[in-house]
Design a protein that fits this description.
Low-confidence stretches: 141-147, 501-506, 555-565, 736-788, 963-975
Distance between the termini: 212 Å
Structural class: mainly beta
Number of strands: 82
Strand content: over 45%
Number of helices: 6
Amino acid sequence: EGQLIALELVSVSGKKEPPVMGEVHDLIAEHFVRFSPCNPHSVQQKKLIIRNNVHLELPFHWQIMKPNLHPLLPGETPEPSHIQFHLAADDVFNVSPLTGILAPCQEEEFLFTFCPKELKDYHSVCHLVLRDVPQLPPEPSDNGCLQPVHTRSKVNDVIVMEIEVKGSAEPYQVLLEPYAVVIPGEIFMCTTIRRQFKMWNHSKTCIFFQWERMSSSSHIIEVEPSTGRIEENECFDFDLIVTGGKPERVVTSLVCHIEHHHEPVTLAVEVSFKGPIVTLSVPSVDFGLMKLGEQTQTTLLLTNITQLEASWTLKETQDHQDTQILVEPYRGVLPPLASCSVDVLFRPRFCQRYETQLELTVENGTECHLLVRADVQSPQVCLLNCELLLSELYIGVPAKATITLFNQTLLPSHFSWMAQLQGKQAELCAASFDPSSGSLGPNTSLEITVNFISHTDLELTEVAALCEVQGMSSPLVLSIVASKTKKLSVSYSLPSVRSPPDDESPSTLLLDFGDDVILTRAVTKQLLITNQTAIPAPFTIEAEYFTCHSSKPNNQSEKRFTYVRKPLHSIQAKKVEEKAHEEFVSRLLAHGKGAAFFVLPDTGVLGPFETQTVDVTAYTDMWGEYRDHLICKVGDLEPKLIPMQMTVKGCPLYFQMTGPHPDNQNQGPIIQFGTHVSGGDTVSRSLRINNPTMCDIRIDWETYNIDQNDRKLVDIVVAYGDAFPVKDADGNEVLIGALRISDGNIHTTWERNETPGSEGKSTSLQSMTEGKDYISEDDCEEEKTCLYPSPAKKKLCSVHIRPHVGNLSDYPYYITPQQIVIPPKSSSTIHVSFTPLTLSGSVCESRCVGLALGFMSLDSEMAACVPGKVGRAQGLDLEPVRMDLRAVVKPAVLLVQMEEDEGVLDFHASAGDLLREESEKELAVREFDITQTLQLKNNSEMLLHFRLGTQPPFLVLKSQPQAQTSTSSNLPTGDSQSLVLKPQHNMQVKVAFHCSLSLLDHADQADEEVPPGVTLIHSASGQKKLRFQKNLLIHYSNSSLQTVPLRAHLDLATMRLSTDSIDFGFCYVGQTQTIEVNLYSHGAHTYWKSLIESDEGDAHVFIVTPDFGLLKSKELHVSSCSQCLQVSFTPR
């Protein structure tokens, strides 16, 4: 029975991927199988299951054909001409089994294999062909199934199933991590280094790799492992092994072959190799300055700082036939980290500035260069001036001059002067050089002192000196030219004045010490003596008149110090020096001339061309205008007289209490008399005046009062004859009296001195006046020809204008004696008195400002003037000695301080205190005192002498000073003894109010009988008081009086009854009736007693209980009180 062929594709393994829209496919293929992309030469398989649905065995075979590809529009059927059958030639797709028999109604499994060879897309069609299939009818049935085949039909191979297969190949995905290996720094050659890297396989299948090895004559670069397999999506770790053979930088790539991969994988490698390094100990060699003919060497240290063996060579960069550098050793091999020494020897052959380079070559290493320098010179010395001109020469006297040697090179040069001069005139002179030999430093000059001595008066022109220099072929030649000789010549000048020219007169030279030289203050002037020649000469200098001979004060102090065993304190040493200086000045002025010129040095030798500075110091102890000559004698020259002058001002006298005043010598002490009571006693002060000079000095004193409101500016003083003539002990003029007009009033000298209180007497006046020399008119004519100063002529009248100092007066200040002569080197005493003024009542204080002027005179003619040498002003022509006088006059007043500031010292007493209770029924009368205390304070600056007094009923009980006074005792009477209260001291005074019965009598006296100061006072309340008013009298020693008010109140007792009468009314006989009555007391407390008086004699029927008692208030400060009395009446 014939059956239709029915084959069915049951399944396809793997993921089913239908064609994509628009994808090109075969025109007649019924099924589609797509293989996943894979790498070349990799194999992919898919299982297809085909079922034979007929009950016949069907032989088959597979054909791999090219696809029929022709684009068709939608709904279009392919044309037969488009269908062609061509076998595929790429052999990429395979089916297994390729032939066989399909079992009836069984499923057959086929394995489709895809193995691409190249990187491209593959497209084929697998035809399943049944063999020996009967031929089909011409047209198929409507259902599309094959018609039954008859056995006797023709058989043919029939394509029963067409399966379209597609597949693509993609390249292998291999990644290196990192893609390049860069080794930083430098690697020593012959050293192996490893670096790691990875290879990733991101392909679809595993890969097989093989690395090439780079091996050259110098380097080896390889990878371990070199071959292997890497599974898909896995990585593999490799080691890059690098070994260098020579120092260079290598940039290359290692090739890795991947099986079936079209291109190899490369790994970029970059590495630098370095060879051994040899270092030099110095960057350069500088031999410095060298002298031609000498050689020098230095040692270099070569160090191999690497772990490689180094073969080195050290030589000049350029080859020279006649080299001056020798290196020993110049080559060698250094083990790793080793060192060696190399000697470099330099032998210069000529003068030059040498410079070359040594090259250090290291095999397979880096080169370095060493700079070698040297400065080769030969000695070269010259004279800056080859001719020496000597213009001033003296026979036998060495003449000095200087020449200069200069070293023109940097080499030290040794020179030596020949002792023998050369030339035709060499025997007529001699020369020496200082230094005669020595060394000159590099590029330095040296001054040579030439001492030249001429033995002739001829001019020398043909003389030469030779200087030999080591290393120079010829000596240096110095030509010497000398002029003729000269004689001794000396000039004189002052430091601040240039030397006078030869044509100017030297007589204008003057040593002027000034017009305002202060007495006792040393003044030094300098004189310059210049030797204008080279001839040494001795000199002596001294003053003509005011000479002095004494050693320096320093020598004296040194002698004193030799006796001191222990070192002196600085203050003690200063005192010793001052004492030595005082003794030194005293010896200089011992001649009594008032001045001395001390010359230092006064003798010596004036050297050649030497300028000797001479200090001329003027010491003085007297005022005046001085003139003298300084005699200068040098060698055999004529003595030179240099005039000297100075004007000395000041006062040599000084007061013992203040001592000398170097800065203000005319200012004496300020005499403070302090504060005194108005109209008090005269106070005197004794002052000693010292005269340290060698002359008698007379002082005439005048006192002045200074008024602050005085507007006078100047005083015109007119004197006839001597302004201050000599007086005897009684104050009378010894010579003819001279009238003097001062301030418009004419006073004779005798009148001005006839004032009370003159007690002092001048000393030695009589002897002075008797021995006084008088100058005649002839003498005065002769003096006209003398040099200034000359004796002052007697003046008939003189007028002096001076600043107004005050009003001439001898009250309140007065000096005795007014004229006094102070002997030389001695002292005298004056007395300054002050008589306090008497102040008026309204003046509380008076300040007495006074001034005393002492006019100095010299009674000795020799002391007043030495013709041509000294002249001294006197009297009004000379600034007087000034002494300021100060005193204050105040009235005698004490400050009274009380407990209450009412200005009155109050006392309060009660008359009831006079009664004292002796017993219960007896009373006694006793007087008593009420005391008050006040303070007396002396606020002034003076002692106050006073007495205290008062009047009854007041009395001074006690005066107790808080500081010690002359009297301090209880004074029972009203007047006290004299008391003294020091300034700013207090005194306590107790004043009492004496209360007695006699004071009560004033209460009953009539107004006209009451003594002064007593007053009876009635108050509104009926109280009565007695007021006593007196004064505490303070009697001062100057008869002034001060009063302190005293006031006392004496309370009197006043009593009254509450009723004036008592009416008992009708009473029974024998029955007692009692009525109370109040007894009132006002004022003082009192004792009372009741008395019953009756005209009928029946007073005993009345009884008062109590019948006596003390009526006193129980409360303080209450002046009224009362007591209850019971009055009883008992009729009989």
